[in-house]
Design brief:
The chain has helices at residues 41-45, 52-60, 64-67, 80-84, 90-94, 100-108, 118-127, 188-200, 221-225, 232-241, 244-247, 260-264, 270-274, 280-288, 298-307; strands at residues 73-78, 111-112, 132-135, 141-147, 150-154, 160-170, 173-178, 253-258, 291-293, 311-315, 321-327, 330-334, 340-350, 353-358. The strands form 2 sheets. A 7-stranded mixed β-sheet has the order 2-1-7-6-5-4-3. The protein is α+β, with helices and mostly antiparallel strands. It contains 15 helices and 14 strands. The relative contact order is 0.14.
């Protein structure tokens, strides 16, 4: 039985295309219903006659509140016909109460933590030479391509979905309707293997020490970071920016965590200026430029980097780009200005993602 999911964080998608009043006439119809750009993803989806299965799945997985949240999110929304094309019994099995976590992972494989309009996706595909990797909020990475005016998404099993209705603007992001359900690496065994590795990661011995403190894999990113003596500046900045609740959320998140020494390398007065109340938005942008949606281990980052000729582009939650680079066997993360931070401690597992410690601050352009 297949398992579904998706994520997509991409750079340069910071600007909403919703200007002024958001009226239904600004949006295409979906499933015979008007889509209102001043309503959120769930409020619109429930009105589409073509998405009753998706809505039922979102409700069963307990994701209604998430998709009604601030976002922004990009949702690739499979139609009822897309779900009907799955092997017999797949949907019914996923909707069982005991499979709620698996269903949630499947649905998140269709959600990206950014607002990616179709023209931005096309631009990223062009920038990457014809195929752009799209990490999702679930446990899979999609590949975006296009032909003519049609955007296509391929999952890790080779299933290809076509965007049949693009750019359905929402108050908290955008919906692109697709004609197939996208799935992570195939098979129940793969999913069971992921779950087993997660269980193993719950013991202290599986995690490196950071800043003189043990990192507990059953605690979230903030709960662990506050114990590291090497990350007091980062923690203070997260608190000042109002990002504590976000980084304690479900995620998963991959956080490249600069040390105190990394902040100290910034020009004199930079940290003090960013910590001023008047500069909270700028501080938030800097911090979220260190966060990628999804759970990317050091091994996976290296594999993707090698597979892409030595450089792997990622989009951060801020909308800015960072690039993984391998040099001399070490993993570096490079910001848009070319500044490189070396990953000094990798794979610090968290209950809601993973932390990789870096020795430089990544500054968005």
């Amino acid at each position: 039985m297949k398992s579904m999911t998706n994520t997509l964080l991409m750079s340069g998608v910071a600007a909403f295309a919703i200007v002024g009043a958001a009226f239904a006439q600004d949006n295409p119809m979906v499933g015979g219903a008007a889509m209102f750009a001043d309503r959120n993803i769930v409020e619109n989806a429930v009105n589409s006659a073509d998405h009753t299965t998706l809505v039922a799945a979102v409700q069963a997985a307990g994701l209604v509140e998430t998709l009604q949240g601030e976002g922004p999110f990009t949702v690739f929304a499979p139609t009822n016909a897309a779900f009907d094309a799955l092997p017999d019994g797949t949907v019914e099995t996923l909707l069982m109460e005991e499979n709620r976590d698996q269903l949630a992972d499947v649905l998140k494989c269709h959600v990206v933590g950014a607002n990616a309009m179709s023209d931005a996706i096309v631009g990223m595909v062009d920038d990457d030479g014809g195929a752009h990797p799209v990490p999702t909020l679930g446990s899979c990475t999609l590949t975006a391509t296009y032909q003519g005016d049609t955007i296509m998404l391929e999952d890790e099993n080779g299933t290809m979905a076509t965007v049949t209705i693009a750019d359905v603007r929402q108050s908290n992001g955008v919906i692109h309707v697709i004609d197939a359900v996208l799935t992570p690496a195939s098979g129940d065994q793969a999913m069971q293997g992921d779950m087993a590795s997660d269980d193993m990661a719950m013991s202290d011995g599986d995690n490196p020490m950071v800043g003189g403190a043990p990192m507990l894999a059953e605690r979230n990113i903030v709960e662990n970071a506050v114990n590291s003596a090497d990350h007091t500046t980062l923690v203070a900045a997260v608190q000042q920016a109002g990002l504590v609740e976000t980084l304690q959320g479900e995620g998963p998140f991959t956080v490249f965590a600069p040390t105190n020494a990394a902040f100290d390398k910034l020009p004199d007065g930079t940290v003090e200026t960013l910590m001023m109340d008047d500069n909270k938005d700028q501080l938030t942008k800097v911090l979220t430029a260190h966060v990628v949606a999804g759970n990317l281990s050091g091994t996976e980052l290296m594999e993707r980097t090698r597979a892409n000729g030595g450089r792997y582009n990622m989009q951060t939650v801020s909308g800015d780009a960072i690039t993984a680079d391998l040099s001399g066997g070490d993993l570096y993360i490079i910001d848009e200005s070319g500044n490189a931070g070396k990953v000094t401690i990798a794979d610090v597992r968290q209950s809601n993602g993973v932390i990789h410690v870096v020795d430089s601050v990544l500054v968005p352009r």
